[in-house]
Amino acid sequence: MPRSLEPLDLTIQIPYHFRCPISLELMRDPVTVGTGQTYDRSSIESWVATGNTTCPVTRALLTDFTLIPNHTLRRLIQDWCVANSAFGVERIPTPKQPAEPSLVRSLLSQAASESNPTHSRLSALRRLRGLARDSDKNRSLISSHNVREILVNLVFSSSQSLELSHESLAILVMFPLTEFDCVAIASDPERISCLANLLFHSSIEVRVNSAALIENVVAGTRSSDLRLQISNREIIFEGVIDILKNPLSSPRALKIGIKGLFALCLGKQTRHKAVSAGAAETLIDRLADLDKCDAERALATIELLCRIQVGCAAFAAHALTVPLLVKTILKISDRATEYAAGALLALCSASEQSQKEAVCAGILTQLLLLVQSDCTDRAKRKAQMLLKLLRDSWPEDSVGNSDDFVCSEVVPF
């Protein structure tokens, strides 16, 4: 039942046969099972997924789990929605039907065959991409057909058109990689060089997809040596940060840029490369444009970079760093507060100027509120350490004695 109908239950009656027998809500994608009963697709799929093998209404055993779309009933429901639009009922959209396994196999075969003309292979890939976008169920089906190995080979093949490679890349980043896939990419210097070069492609979509694949590989590789082979390339930091700098970057581009930068900065040995590429200024300038989850990652990255001397210096040199971090405390989330406090602790420990800026920005009030809040223990410990560090900057009777605590590590996302 659409939310818009909830307050209208007393004035409008949904026909009984338009309701799903399982959920009792208006059906959006009615399908018929072998017993002849019709249910909403999501409801009957959930019923079967939990181990039930009978028809919910008749209790008869379902020997065939094929779901047949009931187009006639769906059109009747749509007509009813239109007829009752004056009551706030919205017309249900025509659902896209799930992909057939035979179709997926055929499309993958067409795309992988080097004997097929390029335009035919591109057409197959674009159709696969459309199916993958349609639903999680389609992505699960496509994923079960060895799609990763096929796409990885297409992305990095030197004997095909660049357009075919770029289209394959766009599909590949829609699927989680296995560790085997990640190792196969990370252990090949030519493949890493290819991805690094794509970060500077004229198409922003290609650049973002390359950054997404790099992040997937770094996050999915257990070997620290292989991760280092990727993050040790300054050009990769420059490419990822350039995506964040781009004023035309979409929310997806910003999300992937932040995820990529965070993953690359987890390795301590190469954090200085992020700083050299302009990470400090970019993170501070972009922080206000990010949603909650991305802001948490950005603040976690800031804390990581503040743990090295050159990173601390770079953030301290930005006039907005300290005021913005102080303002962030208790504003976004517990995690964000913890990372902001950790970054401030590093900055104030390294610079008296940062201490003065923090006091001017009102950090005392923020820290006192933080210590009394329901925030994480790690955040409170960092706040206690900051209070102790800054106690000479305000009257002695304004802050009680605090014990010394060790700053904990950033929790990976």
List key phrases describing it.
single chain; 413 residues; mainly alpha; three-stranded antiparallel beta sheet; 22 helices; Ubox_domain; PUB22/23/24-like; ubiquitin protein ligase activity; EC 2.3.2.27
Structural summary, described in words:
A hairpin with a 5-residue loop joins strand 1 and strand 2 (38-40). The chain is built from 22 helices and three strands. Helix 6 runs antiparallel to helix 7 (162-172) and helix 7 packs across helix 10. It has helices at 41-49, 71-83, 101-112, 118-134, 136-143, 147-155, 162-172, 179-186, 189-198, 204-220, 224-231, 234-245, 251-265, 271-276, 279-286, 292-305, 309-316, 321-328, 334-350, 352-360, 363-371, 377-389, and strands spanning 30-32, 38-40, 68-69. By secondary structure, it is mainly alpha-helical. The model is unreliable at 1-10 and 397-409 (pLDDT under 50). The protein is globular and about 80 Å long. The chain has a three-stranded antiparallel beta sheet with strand order 2-1-3. Its EC number is 2.3.2.27. It holds the Pfam family ARM_PUB.
Briefly summarize what is shown:
Pathway: Protein modification; protein ubiquitination. The chain has 413 residues and is mainly alpha-helical.
Report the mean per-residue pLDDT as an integer.
Answer: 88
Question: How many individual helices?
Answer: 22
Range of strand content: under 5%
**What percent of the residues sit in helical stretches (DSSP H or I)?**
55-70%
List segments where confidence is low: pLDDT < 50 over at least 5 consecutive residues.
1-10, 397-409
Order of helices and strands: EEHEHHHHHHHHHHHHHHHHHHHHH
Q: Report the major sheet.
A: 3 strands, antiparallel
CA-CA gap between termini = 35 Å
Anisotropy-based shape:
globular
